[in-house]
Amino acid sequence: MGPPTCRRHYVFVGLALLCTLLVGSVAPAVAAPPPEPFCQCGDAIEGGAAAHALDLTVTTSTATVQVHENGSATWVVRATTDADAATMTRLRENATLRDSVVDGAAPGTLVSSAVDSDTVVARFRDGQFAERSVGVLRSAAFTNHPERHLRLASLGPDELTVVAPEGMVVGRTVPGSTVSDDRSRMTLTSLDERDVGHVVTFEPRTAAFGPVKSLVAVAGFHAPTVAGHVGTFVVPSALVFAFAVGVVGSGVSWVLARTSLGGEFVPSLLTALGAVTTVVTVVGAVGGNLFGNTDGVAIGFSLGFAALGVCSARLGRSYRALTAATATAALVGVVGAVVAALVVDGASLRAVSIPMTVGLSLAVFTLVPAGYAFARGRRWVGVVTATVGFVCFACALLPLTAPTVGLGGFFVFAFAAGYPLVASPLLLAGALLAQNESKRDGHHDTERVAAAD
């Protein structure tokens, strides 16, 4: 043990690293501009009119984005107003005033403006709406950009239509949009904040493997951001978790090896706990929306817990059997979450976070085969097994494609350090199953010796 001065230095360094992590997670979000509409449209026109003392309110607005083969786009904004005839006449006859009023209604450079009865029409040229990638056009207009920290608050116009270039069709779209039968255009009437982060693609109409190319193009766009977050948060926190679970797992197996406990009751206990928690979560979801938007995840996780107990009883007592039981339990959890969301909550599949359900299930259930491996003396197998589950959970929890992970980056480190101790009963359950198996192996060896005699 080092002198007190050295120990204080370690504490200071640890606190400094913790503060750095926290600031690095939160500062980008704090420094980012406030959320804004996808297209200012009506708001910008009303603001421009007010700046020139014009009494004008936009009642409805639409925007059409015609994408071109070189990635540029032409925006046409139409804003119907309640302005009186004199105001509209003034705008119709004064092009300079009209251009000043509509300027900023859409991204890009104003090309022209006009007045059609009670509607103001403006055309804009956006030179960077999309870019070429692996044979398709890829647009990040609906995506949070790491460089710009774009944060979309709403759609803006009452209707937005994005038209594919000539000879191309819409590939990847924004959830909630409507695609025409010939896939030449995508229409949106609203934009949920959960939709932000999606990349839109345009594929050649006759191209082979168009959807695959779109998938590769989207993956290529997100890859640098994902790699940065994985290297900064997932990998370091996984190392912390691996160390913590190694210490706790070894301690559990060391203590258990010096007892005479058996694990015959473990599968029944797991099944009972899963059944009880399933009943509680279903009643809570139906009776009072106990878990809010995560009702489906809670129910699915509880069902998976029960499935883990049943499978551990049916598939035998070995590392492979318990690993198969873990995979089955995670699958049951996902199916249960989807069914619960559709039947119990009456919600759509979008209300179910399948990655989070899988990640949470694996983070919990993998501790059982990990505990088994620790008790059988396969320490590294136990560490790797549990860490795989943690990594799945961390990747599901963190918004890896977003510019910043927010407080999630701090949480995964706290979770990595504390979770192995909190979840040590699951490691104990797996170790008890191994303890029981060891006794069976010893019993069979005794029978074989007796038979030989």
From TrEMBL:
Superkingdom to which the source organism belongs: Archaea
Segments passing through the bilayer: 233-257, 269-291, 297-315, 322-343, 349-368, 380-402, 408-434
Key words of the record: Membrane, Transmembrane, Transmembrane helix
Name of the protein in question: Uncharacterized protein
Lineage: Archaea, Methanobacteriati, Methanobacteriota, Stenosarchaea group, Halobacteria
